[in-house]
Amino acid sequence: MKITFIIGTRPELIKVAPVILELKKHKVDFDIVNTAQHKDLLDPYWDTFGIEPTIVLDVMVAGQSLSSLTERAINAIQSYIDTVAVKPTIILAQGDTTTVMAASLVSFYNKIKFAHLEAGLRSFDFDNPFPEEMNRRIASIAAEMHFCPTEVSKTNLLNEGIDANKIFVIGNTVVDSLNLVVNNDNFKNLKWLNLDLDKTENYAKKVLITCHRRENHGDNLSNIIEAVHELAMSNKDTVYVWTLHPNPNVRGKVLDSKLSKLDNVILVKPLEYLDLLKMLNISFCAISDSGGIQEEAPSFNTPVLVLRETTERPEGVTEGVAFLVGSDCEKIVKKYNDLKMNPPVFTKNPYGDGFSSSKIIRHLISK
After folding, report:
1. Using one digit for the tens of pLDDT, what is the confidence trace for 153-174?
2. CATH code of the domain occupying 186-341
3. How high is the pLDDT of residue 16?
4. Class of domain 2-172+352-366
């Protein structure tokens, strides 16, 4: 038996890493293939988990279209299959990126079992998120094993005609990764790796902001900037930490905005994992379009204003700890002020118990 993990982005590594670490406890051959879809964001995270890729494919070319990226990813993964000494019996990939979709297709073409981690998430809108909704639909069609984070995602797959015997509800491995770090006794006393974050100590409240999705480029990003500016101007006791995605459509526009002139707005490069979790832990709330943030924040009792019109993670919304605000300035500001007056009550993280990885490995090695 041999398992190949195909990883291309930072969220994929965060969620697959605990599965790899769990597999290391067993005598099973495995490879880690890094497509480097988000190379700059991904590279610092390998050391965080103490693992390294077997092979790096470097599928990214500046300015390429989604079609070109898909072509390069499929060809690169196929080349790995053609040249590796021992071919995998199972290929596992996580989520909904182009890397995942390409991995599912190459698995299908080569009659290799495809295991889809974080299966069954649906927004039911192919334009939001784009192209992720299509990517994960394709991955579901190709998959032989569907590892779902919740009963909601399982129901989505059943409604699409997926065999119930191929669906396993195991929680979300993001909680496993988070626990690896947070359960360290020194977590709360760790110094910031990004020294810019030392400035946060001067403020009573902290807010974490991230924004990267295609649907939040252009005018929508302008609206979000306006909302953050309004909040920062009216809450001088609060510091707003915006971690800037390297995409120039986001980074350049935010850096050139009026936010850069405010003392209580800190614009920083993407945070390393320890800093990100520590920031989530001390934040009054997060303002984000990130799926990972929606899943991680409940572990810290941190509510999330979700910068999207819909979400494939409805559990947080149902629990009353995540709130869909889209990119509407007025809606963002209003919901933020509502949270100040009426903070949500947290019970448990609806996305997992921290033991998802061991459940996944039991299913994988039994096949």
Report:
1. 999 999 999 999 999 999 999 9
2. 3.40.50.2000
3. 98
4. alpha beta
